[in-house]
Amino acid sequence: MSTGLSEKLNEEVQKRRTFAIISHPDAGKTTLTEKLLLFGGAIRLAGTVKGRKANRHATSDWMEIEKQRGISVTSSVMQFDYEGHRVNILDTPGHQDFSEDTYRTLTAADSAVMLIDSAKGVEAQTKKLFQVCRKRGIPIFTFINKLDREGQNPFDLLEELEQVLGIRSYPMNWPIGMGKQFRGVYDRKLTQVELFQGDDHKEIQVRKVSGYDDPIVKEIAGEFFYDQLVQDLELLDVAGDEFDYEKVQKGELTPVFFGSAINNFGVQTFLENFLQLAPTPTPRKSNEGMVDPLHEKFSGYIFKIQANMNPAHRDRIAFLRICSGKFERGMSVKHVRVGKDIKLAQPQQFLAQDRDIVEDAYPGDIIGLFDPGIFRIGDSLSQGGSLEFDELPTFSPELFSKVTVKNALKHKQFQKGVDQLTEEGTIQVFKTIGFEDLILGVVGQLQFEVFEYRMKAEYSSEVQLSRMTYQFARWLVGDDIDPAKFRINSQLVKDKKDNYVALFENEYALRTAMEKNPNLKFLETAP
Ligand code: G4P
Question: Distance between CA atoms of 355 and 348, rounded to whole angstroms?
């Protein structure tokens, strides 16, 4: 490749930031995303910003079930430009029925934005998603939302980040008052006060000050809040963590921003700081070592497969994260697992229902590939060579159902449906030992409904799902795997790759099994 191209590649990589927002439903993810897109003037939306009301999900009507429920089942990708940067937001399903896709999507992000409701603090779904990010060691930025409402004391919130999530924090700004008395935030780096006006202001109103003891701050805050602010900031200066860029990069320290997404307050400040601090597309592990985004040969991997985005076509779309090189429409790449060259003729990003054909794309970008059934989660595509990215983790399901076909004559279609739907990666299938009963495992209840619906619609198989009471799946690994020697008083099954998996009803049962089988490892993700 010519030097011109490598310069261009470097330039494009430097511009990019690819992140996911992690939060619990209702924390304000949709609202924050919308504000971010407004700043940028969105250029591409793969999917939609989830509608929080039924009439707002017009762009995501891919699946009937979404229409029926008025929620978005699928994750999506959004792209926008802001001050010389190209930003990719990987959305994660905001409904509490999230799926394994949500976890896997996080593997395609280079950093995460953790959104927290100031009244509720760290909630269950945030915690789960945080742990996945933590394992990858990616930088995590925190936005504490809804400061226009009465919330928890900011120190308590920081304490919670540390106690519940085990991450240290550095507040980039600090609230002055709260709820009805919310006056704004004091920016610690720029030593200025960002004034809260209460309505959806486009321009940020700021007052530059000499420090938090500047009389202007007192004027803005009023005596009571001023005293509180000075006390708080002094305490932060003395007892708080120092800002340490390296720790931020490793995900050990989270920069914290306070604001109110619905009032568009603090969002632009957050975005600008984020763009400065967040990493450009990071290298990815492969069988040939770390793959640098500046490596000139194109490579990428598929982290998600989504069916029936357009019911008229009944096709599947494979979402590919570009890891290195330049992507050009029509290029031939090696589909490494099957050992064949394929032509990427119809790469897509989506603008609502009208699919937008991508001409070129760079590391950090996500493209949708038309999938006639040739892709699996984790597949690598690369230009020349046989570079393969590390396998994507399989996460422990939390809900289980036994599945049978209602009409035994349809058994063949049933089996085909189960095989194909579980290949998409949001549902796992296990077989009981001996009887070979099928058990499905998911991380969100909605996946069962999607499964049932699609089995009927696409494979004309009516299924019977019987919920089981298990909550945990653990993959059993050891030097000498012999089920006869397992001392496990629980359901033993095998996964698709014939690994032994034990299903447990509660933590007590799991702990007991671990104690009784010291030679076995109980893995939360498939080996
Ligand atoms: P989600 O995607 O994380 O589930 O949250 P979403 O943005 O849908 O926001 C959840 C609710 O919180 C919405 O209210 C939204 O308006 C509100 N919200 C978001 N940011 C703020 C904020 O900074 N301050 C306050 N006070 N509220 C905020 P809703 O009543 O469910 O919907 P709507 O009637 O506003 O549409």
Answer: 6
CA-145 nearest atom, ligand 1? 23
**Under 8 Å between Cβ of 335 and 374:** yes
pLDDT above 60 (res 71): no
CB of 94 within 6 A of ligand 1: the answer is yes
Q: Does residue 52 line the site of ligand 1, with CB under 6 A? A: yes
* 91 known member of a binding site: yes
CB atoms within 10 A of CB 329: 16
Q: Ligand 1 centre from 29 Cα, in Å?
A: 8
Q: State pTM to two decimals.
A: 0.85
Atom index in ligand 1 nearest the CA of residue 33 equals: 7
Burial (CB count <10 Å: 0-12, 13-18, 19+), residue 477: middle
Q: Is 23 in the pocket of ligand 1 (CB under 6 A)?
A: yes
The predicted structure's pLDDT at residue 102: 82
Contact 219, 234 (CB under 8 A): no
What domains are there in the chain, each with its CATH number? 111-277 (3.40.50.300), 399-523 (3.30.70.3280)
Give me the sign of the Cα torsion angle 166, 100, 249, 22. Answer: negative
Residue reference for tokens 């096709």: 315
Encode pLDDT of 332-369 as tens digits: 999 999 999 998 876 555 433 344 567 789 999 998 88
* DSSP line for 216-237: HHHHHHHHHHHHHHHHHHHHHH
49 C-alpha to center of ligand 1: Å?
Answer: 13
What is the CA(263)–ligand 1 centre distance, in A? 10
Instruction: Give yes or no for residue 139 CB within 6 A of ligand 1.
Output: no
